[in-house]
Amino acid sequence: MADLRSRFLDVYSVLKSEILHDPAFDFTEDSRQWVERMMDHNVPRENENSWIGLLAGKLNRGLCVIDSYKLLKEGKELTDDEFFLACALGWCIEWLQAYFRVLDDITDNIPEDAEKRRGQPSWFKQPKVGMIAVNDGSILHNHITRILKKHFREKPYYVDLLDLFNEMEFQTASGKMTELITSSTLVGEKDLSRLSTMPLHHLRIVQYYKTTYYSHYLSVACALILSGENHINVKNILVEMGFYFQVQGVAAEYENENYGKLVKSIEAHPSKAVQAALKSLLTKGHE
């Protein structure tokens, strides 16, 4: 895993360099330094002096693309190109998470004693940032399309990837809206004690769309697209699995009832490789 993480981080460095030297924009030295600092703080969550932020952040969403792709290849060694493309998609997911995180911290109006993400002040609380963070969130979002265009536009599944990421953004933003306008007491998804008092149908709406889609469905969907499999066929399983992970320890009745159903749904899929990828994800989430 350490070697996989190291190789994954190497690809981040490549993608970051490409973005900072994108010929589509005439960077000044100040703007290039700003974007580099902003990316390092928010995407791999690097602090100013070391990679310790990376160790705190598990990068599970991005690494899951590689793990799932390997399982779908049924033991065949990934070529360097295949590995790079899987990593690039993994980093697109981490970029998406960073984009949502930057804006979430602002819209959640978090109190003074809870302004940190993984031990660091939220980006909008960094010196000289403030509401510039709103524009920085937009920049992070646009980085995703730049990465996809550079590395996937010649692939036959390029439009599928664009559609997938657009769908994830729509679903997640809509879920966030639902949370903001109907659950004013919900200050953050980590406050599970608040979630336990919510009706299950409302909890399902918020968690399905705010977190589940990009945290659980997106990673495996990217791997399926890379391998030529139909990701739509397993969408319901993955989304339900993501909701199952979200409510573990909160809705015990739902949790007990649905683990077996998930296993049966996975085993009903005709592809053994897809079954293996889905069972691997379910096992990791259940640990």
Fold and architecture overview:
Pfam families: polyprenyl_synt. One of its GO terms (molecular function) is metal ion binding. Catalyzes the sequential condensation of isopentenyl pyrophosphate with the allylic pyrophosphates, dimethylallyl pyrophosphate, and then with the resultant geranylpyrophosphate to the ultimate product farnesyl pyrophosphate. This is Farnesyl pyrophosphate synthase 1-like. This protein has helices at residues 2-20, 29-42, 52-56, 60-72, 80-107, 132-152, 158-182, 192-195, 200-227, 235-246, 252-267, 272-286; strands at 116-117, 120-121. The protein has a domain at 1-162: Farnesyl Diphosphate Synthase (Orthogonal Bundle). By secondary structure, the protein is mainly α. Helices cover 70% and strands 1% of the residues. The longest helix is centred in the N-terminal third of the chain and has 28 residues, at 80-107. α1 packs across α5 (80-107). The protein is globular, with a radius of gyration of 19 Å. Residues 46-56, 111-115 and 185-193 have low confidence and may be disordered.
